[in-house]
Amino acid sequence: MNKLNVLIVDDEFLALKLLEDYIGRLPFLKIIAKVKSPVKALEILNESQVDLLFLDIQMPAISGTNLLKSLKHKPVTIFTTAYSEHAVEAFQLDAVDYLLKPFSFERFLQAVNKAQEQIGLRQNMHASGGSVGNEIREYFSFKSDGRFVKVHLDEILFVEGLKEYVKIVCRDKRYVVLESLKNLEETLPKASFMRVHKSYIASVSKIKSMYGNMLDMGEYEIPVSREKKEEVMKFVFK
Fold first, then answer.
1. Which tens digit of pLDDT belongs to each residue from 169-221?
2. What span, in angstroms and rounded, lies between the C-alpha atoms of 187 and 179?
3. For residues 80 and 75, what is the distance between their CA atoms, to the nearest angstrom?
4. Which of 38, 44, 116, 187 lies 20 to 30 Å from 169, alpha-carbon distance?
5. In this structure, are residues 111 and 53 in contact, taking their beta carbons and an 8 Å threshold?
6. CATH class, range 134-236
């Protein structure tokens, strides 16, 4: 198993030491840097490959949430903080988990396992989904219910966002996957799939009709947002 590159960002010395200790117990994790300054963290994130980011929220100069918002390509992120009130914002930023200090090794391990699954999903999608020349991929792979699944793009009707999970709805099956809707939007080919609502991505070829603010997907109906309605009309019914 290839080791995952880890960056720790926390302005508390004891928090850095605890994470360093916990990470040291897992042979598949490799700390590439541990920093107290979010500004220094930005330098590292722009210059190095970071697979997994442990990120405090309340820090000088830049908060952890604002740091993550500033990144174009976000690594899989686990927030570590003493404050529970930032949890909603953290998950809106697609964090894989939110650890409240002080946290046990068992709770840390649970978060790492979730992160490992999401990193594996991203790698599988890139392996099966990268374009070669003008070729567009026909399928992608992901992990669902403990097993790897390969789904042909033509089977997908739509994808629904469920906070840190997505539901991939196919003609005869549904899968719940630990991934963000935003990441899937970037992964699926834009010629075939369209974000029609903050919580939905639709397969363009499966849209039968639109009436009001609903899209007819055959057996299903999904909403289209007011902001996307004109774009859907132009792209789907041109």
1. 998 899 998 888 888 887 788 888 999 999 999 999 999 999 999 999 988 99
2. 11
3. 15
4. 116
5. no
6. mainly beta
